[in-house]
Amino acid sequence: MSLENKFDQAKGAVKEGVGKVTGDNKTEAEGFVEKTVAKAKEVAEDAKGAVEGAVEGIKNSLDK
């Protein structure tokens, strides 16, 4: 889990909220996209870590 991704999610959520409050659909949409992309990156990093852990576990069991 990357602190940068959490920051980007928060930044996108704030931007989305500002867009909603001000009625600026473009800013709202940009914030939503930024938030969603950051969340997707976080999920991808988590999945990559899980796969690497599983591969390492298999390697360790084969080495025994």
From TrEMBL:
InterPro entries: CsbD, YjbJ_sf. Residues 3-52 form the CsbD-like domain. Signal peptide: none annotated. It comes from the Bacteria. It holds the Pfam family CsbD. Coiled coil: none annotated. Belongs to the UPF0337 (CsbD) family. This is General stress response protein CsbD. It comes from Streptococcus sanguinis SK330.
